[in-house]
Design brief:
This protein has 176 residues and is mainly α. The termini are far apart.
């Protein structure tokens, strides 16, 4: 079984212990796939990027479980820090990645919410994948279509990104 499959299986186990937040679960896999695409395009490690993508918001799933990882006080400002810590626990528990790979993955997760900062090229893959996934599906209703959105659309030759009037979920996007 591939390392990515093992991580996906662990995320699925966590989901089964959740009270149910399908938008977060869907978003994790959208970002994971977007990470793979962007990493391949930029010559970054697609396997590690895929893993970082599926774990980048894991604190939101863990905070809705009945297990010992229930996180009190989780919010949009600190979820990256919590997700990074939980990701490290998952990676160390599975023992399928090196400590250097764990540090690369978890550093990107910890930094992914600060979209204004420019970090390592690997960190930027996760940030851009997060914006790209939000921009395409916009399940939160938040407008993620700023400079990063414009830049990634240019990078992938998306000619007119403002044509996305309906999200993947079929909900009218009023931000256009």
């Amino acid at each position: 079984m591939t390392r990515i499959r093992q991580i996906y299986n662990r995320v699925n186990e966590i989901l089964h212990n959740c009270d149910g937040i399908p938008a977060v679960y869907t978003h994790l896999f959208e970002v994971s796939q977007s990470c793979a695409l962007i990493a391949l395009r930029r010559g970054e490690n697609a396997e590690l990027a895929t893993i970082a993508g599926v774990l980048h918001d894991i604190a939101y799933l863990k905070s809705n479980t009945n297990d010992t990882h229930n996180i009190i006080g989780l919010n949009g400002n600190n979820h990256a820090e919590y997700s990074s810590k939980i990701a490290m626990e998952i990676l160390q528990g599975l023992n399928i990645t090196t400590s250097e790979e764990n540090d690369i993955i978890c550093s990107a997760i910890q930094k992914h919410s600060d979209k204004d900062a420019i970090d390592t090229p690997f960190d930027e893959v996760l940030k851009d994948a997060d914006v790209f996934a939000h921009g395409l599906s916009n399940v939160t209703g938040t407008n993620f279509r700023g400079v990063r959105w414009d830049n990634i659309c240019k990078e992938f030759d998306i000619v007119n990104p403002k044509l996305f009037k309906y999200t993947v979920c079929g909900i009218y996007d009023k931000s256009n």
